[in-house]
């Protein structure tokens, strides 16, 4: 077994590489904070950040909320709500309807250096439209990144199992998002797109996605939730702990179930592992009790619009016309 190196600085971050990060851990173990920490580094290095999916409660819209720092956001909301942004928030928040094309949304975000935050909450009651818009993002982003903005991009998906569910059916809409996500991941290096996803359980995420990530980051997690083919991991941690200087054994190599919110293990395909620490991101990380509208004064009001499912397509029109004509003749 090769020894891992214990390094303070982060060996995983390289702004010139196009990496896939997969973060797993129990509820509240600090997965989303870690997603944000990496994404913040990318943003500060000039990448286009698309925060595509968050837990309910608009956690992926908090980039513009003041912490040690804050970043300008472009909220992509459903066409079924109007968004009111108070004057004082104009610098940090702008909004665009999901009716707009992915290309124009990204162009604007690049021009104004804003983080793109997709607000799935505003699609409540219109889940199909929500998943279809996410699917559109996933399939369009590579083209837009390469042909239109010529940029380097990072796509964030928290609670990835909602979009990429492996087995249980939360809903049927994953059928829209799974294939484009998989192809985005497969081609990510060629399209200059990194991605960071998190999930509570490793196995909940579609295997094609799991197998295409470059590094697995493990937050506090019970050994029992690990898949069988990773049973070597706790054994290896135990082995390394035994070899470490006595005083530092548990701080260098804690048990997986005892990791603190600021700690995580990075597991590489080579089966090398490194234990790392991180600080919370500079912008405000959403706590359970936080309400986005109360925190920012930004309001989302239903505008009474509905999805247009019964649009009469051209060929329908011809059939209808023919039918009416035959009715008239009779
Ligand atoms: N690096 C850190 N330093 C200090 N505290 C942290 C750190 N990371 C996370 N925390 C604490 O852990 C809490 C939970 O973090 P986070 O929301 O990222 O968890 P999560 O695993 O995404 O939870 P969920 O499964 O519910 O989405 C944070 O609100 C914060 O208080
Ligand atoms: Mg989370």
The class by helix and strand makeup works out as: alpha/beta
What topology, given as strand order, has the largest sheet? 5-3-6-2-7-8-1-9-10-11
What is the makeup of the main sheet? Answer: 10 strands, mixed
**Count, helices:** 10
What is the radius of gyration? 22 Å
Which ranges are low-confidence, i.e. pLDDT below 50, for 5 or more consecutive residues? Answer: 1-8, 310-321
Ligands present: adenosine-5'-triphosphate, magnesium ion
Q: Which architecture of the domain at 20-218 and 296-305 does the CATH hierarchy give at level 2? A: 3-Layer(aba) Sandwich
The global form is: globular
Distance between the termini: 86 Å
Instruction: Please state roughly what percent of the residues sit in beta strands, choosing from under 5%, 5-15%, 15-25%, 25-35%, 35-45% or over 45%.
Output: 15-25%
CATH topology of the domain at 20-218 and 296-305, which one? Answer: Rossmann fold
Assign the CATH class of the domain at 20-218 and 296-305.
Alpha Beta
Secondary structure: helix percent: 25-40%
Mean pLDDT rating: 87
Describe the structure.
With 330 residues, the chain is of the alpha/beta class. It has a domain at 20-218 and 296-305: Rossmann fold (3-Layer(aba) Sandwich), CATH 3.40.50.300. 32% of the residues lie in helices and 18% in strands. It has helices spanning 31-44, 102-112, 127-148, 161-164, 174-186, 207-210, 232-243, 249-252, 292-296, 314-329, and strands at residues 20-24, 48-53, 73-77, 81-84, 93-97, 115-118, 153-157, 193-199, 215-218, 263-267, 273-277, 299-302. It is globular. The model is unreliable at 1-8 and 310-321 (pLDDT under 50). Adenosine-5'-triphosphate is lined by residues 25, 27-33, 55, 200, 261-262, 278-280, 285, 287.
């Amino acid at each position: 077994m090769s020894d891992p190196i214990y390094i303070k600085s982060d060996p995983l971050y390289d702004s010139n590489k196009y990496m896939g990060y997969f973060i797993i851990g129990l509820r509240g173990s600090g997965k989303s904070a870690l997603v944000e920490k990496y994404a913040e580094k990318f943003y500060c290095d000039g990448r286009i950040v698309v925060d595509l999916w968050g837990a309910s409660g608009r956690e992926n819209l908090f980039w513009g909320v003041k912490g040690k720092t804050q970043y300008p956001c472009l909220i992509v909301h459903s066409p079924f709500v109007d968004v009111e942004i108070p004057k004082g928030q104009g610098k940090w928040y702008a909004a665009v309807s999901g009716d707009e094309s992915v290309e124009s949304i990204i162009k604007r975000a690049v021009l104004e250096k804003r983080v793109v935050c997709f607000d799935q909450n505003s699609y409540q009651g219109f889940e199909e439209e929500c998943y279809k818009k996410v699917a559109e993002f996933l399939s369009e982003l590579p083209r837009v990144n390469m042909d239109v903005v010529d940029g380097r991009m990072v796509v964030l998906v928290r609670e990835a199992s909602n979009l990429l569910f492996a087995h249980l059916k939360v809903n049927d809409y994953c059928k829209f998002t799974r294939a484009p996500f998989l192809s985005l991941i497969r081609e990510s290096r060629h399209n200059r797109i990194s991605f960071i996803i998190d999930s509570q359980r490793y196995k909940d995420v579609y295997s094609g996605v799991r197998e295409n990530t470059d590094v697995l980051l493990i937050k506090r997690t019970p050994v029992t939730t690990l898949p069988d083919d990773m049973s070597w991991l706790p054994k290896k941690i135990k082995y390394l702990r035994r070899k470490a200087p006595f005083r530092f054994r548990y701080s260098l190599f804690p048990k997986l179930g005892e990791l603190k919110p600021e700690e995580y293990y990075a597991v590489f395909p080579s089966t090398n592992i490194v234990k790392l620490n991180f600080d919370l991101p500079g912008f405000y990380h959403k706590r359970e009790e936080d309400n986005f509208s109360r925190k920012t004064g930004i309001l989302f009001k239903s505008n009474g619009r509905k999805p247009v499912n019964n649009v009469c397509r051209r060929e329908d029109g011809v059939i209808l016309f023919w039918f009416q004509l035959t009715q008239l003749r009779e």
